[in-house]
Design a protein that fits this description.
1% helix, 1 helix, 5-stranded antiparallel beta sheet, 360 residues, mainly beta, Neuraminidase
Length: 360
């Protein structure tokens, strides 16, 4: 009996396994290693080469969510927090040993998260239709729950500004039993299983808001159909907002005037790739001004779910293919050079040759 018959050499695939091969690549700690460079990191423009690493794999760190959203990195704690919106829980991935633990339960159907410039966590809660901040002493502060005397719809994503202000989007996606509590339509009861649920009807247009350090709230725009993910350019002179429909489902960009007002928007990216519409969701910018945006191409978009990467001029320069639709991303890790991707039921990560432009 030969050594080869005891420990046969693995069969070498005719092409690198990826999300579009048959059979597809495997994921998780027991999966066989993949080839370098990773076949699911696609270079579409030479500018993408300087921000990727050729000898690192795309990894699935965890799976088990219903709808994973809102990844955010704590530099002090060296951990990642993200939301399972429908599961009503926040999870935490620890840098030290890769362990995943329940962070907050219930999370009030939290969606987007970020950490401000003081290292405090900020979360958008669908169920309570508010934006909250967790202070260093463990107490919670309500940042916004109404505008002009009317309840917010369901804050979705949030970013912080160096001037101390908080900017967030407010579409109606939390208006459901699955991801929050529904508006009162006379049939569904938001109080079943939730004694603090309340009846209301949407009273505000879908908008983007700014909360200044004193707590004053301004509506900076209501020109988007369903404002969703948002982020600033590295110099904070531009605000990017994903418009998730109904309508064109694209990314729009605004010039920021005097740090607190927005000029008229223009389309930054139409999210069409090879004729496939890759619906946007959440996004973050790197230090070079590239925009890394989650892509949801649906069940018919195999190979187009994942992350689209745009240069500052709006050109699509790269793609990261995932087997699931990607809702949102953030930069983290000790060097802030790792892209974390919350994608449907799972958490993915990829080391890069760039860094996030702001706290996560």
């Amino acid at each position: 009996m030969t050594n080869e018959s005891i420990n046969p050499l693995p069969t070498v695939p005719t092409r690198p396994l990826s999300t579009v091969t048959n059979p597809p690549r495997q994921w998780g700690p027991d999966a066989p290693p993949n080839i370098y460079p990773d076949p699911d990191v696609l270079i579409l423009d030479p500018r993408f080469r300087r921000v990727i690493v050729g000898n690192t794999p795309l990894q699935r760190l965890w799976t088990g969510a219903l709808w994973a959203e809102g990844p955010a990195w704590s530099s002090q704690g060296r951990y990642l927090v993200w939301s399972d919106v429908a599961g009503d829980v926040q999870y935490r991935w620890l840098q030290d040993d890769g362990r995943v633990t329940v962070y907050r339960s219930p999370s009030r159907n939290s969606n987007g998260n970020t950490f401000d410039f003081q290292g405090r966590q900020i979360s958008c809660e669908h169920f309570t239709r508010r934006v909250v901040r967790w202070e260093h002493d463990g107490t919670m502060t309500v940042i916004a729950d109404s505008y002009d005397g009317k309840r917010l719809n369901s804050p979705n994503d949030v970013v912080s500004h160096p001037d101390g202000s908080i900017w967030f989007t407010d579409p109606p996606y939390g208006n459901s039993l699955y991801e929050g509590q529904p508006d009162d339509r006379g049939t569904l009861s938001p109080r079943i299983g939730a004694p603090d649920g309340g009846e209301q009807i949407q009273q505000l247009p879908n908008s983007v808001y700014r909360v200044d350090p004193s707590g004053h709230i301004d509506r900076v725009t209501d020109d988007l159909s369903y404002p969703n993910g948002l982020c600033f350019s590295p110099d904070y002179t531009k605000l990017y907002v994903c418009d998730t429909g109904p309508g064109p489902r694209d990314i729009k960009v605004f010039n920021v005037i005097d740090q607190h007002r927005l000029a008229e928007s223009r389309v930054f990216a139409d999210m069409l790739v090879d004729g496939v519409h890759c619906g946007p969701d959440g996004m973050r910018a790197d230090v070079y001004g590239n925009l890394w945006c989650g892509s949801n191409a649906g069940s018919s978009g195999l190979g187009y779910n994942g992350v689209l990467v745009f240069a500052p001029d709006g050109d699509l320069i790269g793609r990261i293919r995932l087997p699931e639709a990607c809702a949102n991303v953030c930069f983290g890790g000790p060097k802030r050079n790792r892209l974390f991707m919350a994608a449907s039921q799972s958490l993915y990560a990829l080391f890069l040759n760039t860094q996030g432009a702001a706290p996560a």
